[in-house]
Specification:
Length: 351
Amino acid sequence: MKKTTTRLADGRELIYYDADDTADPVVRDAVDRRPLEPVATHSELRHDPLLGDTVAIASHRQGRTYHPPADQCPLCPSDSGGRLSEIPDTDYEVVVFENRFPSLAGGAGRCEVVCFTSDHDASFADLTEARARLVLDAWVDRTRELSQLPGVVQVFPFENRGKEIGVTLGHPHGQIYAYPFVTPRTALMLRTLDEHRERTGRNLFDDVLADEAADGRRIVLAAEHWTAFVPHAAHWPYEVHLFPRRRVPDLLALDEDARAEFPRVYLELLRRFDRIFGPDQPPTPYISGWHQAPFDAPGRRDFGLHLELFTIRRTSGKLKYLAGSESGMGAFINDVPPEVAAQRLREVASQ
Ligand SMILES: [Zn+2]
């Protein structure tokens, strides 16, 4: 992998990741020629006294780009005809840059955009295994780099796919949030992990994986280094958790065998997701994200890196909305039994 770091006109960092597998070395020396003013980002972290969690108030985000026409896509490469985008070069493989409209900014974390391909009309599921591997390498590299920033506690690479999820740009891309605090879900997992250790003397992630493998009904895909299953108490209509078989706290600790097998496994899961609702349905909206251990939490060594992938679509043309019970109380009601969801995800396996 070759990494080239540059700066955009307003000072934001941009990094090209190239597989660099050809005889000609890739040169990335295009300069951002846009007359960009630095964005006045003002992000404030507020503490909720009742729940004990943190909310980022980011008022500058109201002005962000919203569903631009395809020929004005800010994530497509710039073209030699003079159309200038966020990416100065006229082509790229994988590129990462600081979000112009970050939710977290100004010494309170960092938000980055990850473009998976320069092909505007593709999706992650269309990528080759080699490209998916390059994306994984970029996630690993970003986790390492962001962990070095002052105040960053936790790194969350994720992808929102589909306008149903609130995606404002159609170009295939994901994001990385580097939080200056431990997120509520991770804090909850760390607490449960501790309690389980105290009660049983064992590791909760290991036990969950062993229980799912022994039961078998919710296993979606069992590879050599990864296991994908629908959790016993899935919150979402179709939800898959992907665990490496050898538990590690974060992407940095993932061994080469697991990294090498990941592209095939993950692409297969995404392709199955697009087939859940039948051949004539629009692409399945989904959220996919890496759960990693915070960098210096006490329970860090016990934490199990895993990916959670889920869709908010429950049946053709119908979405699961977070209504009263979920939004008001955080108590989920799921209409699709996890065993039925797993069965469906096995039925739509690639031949
Ligand atoms: Zn585009």
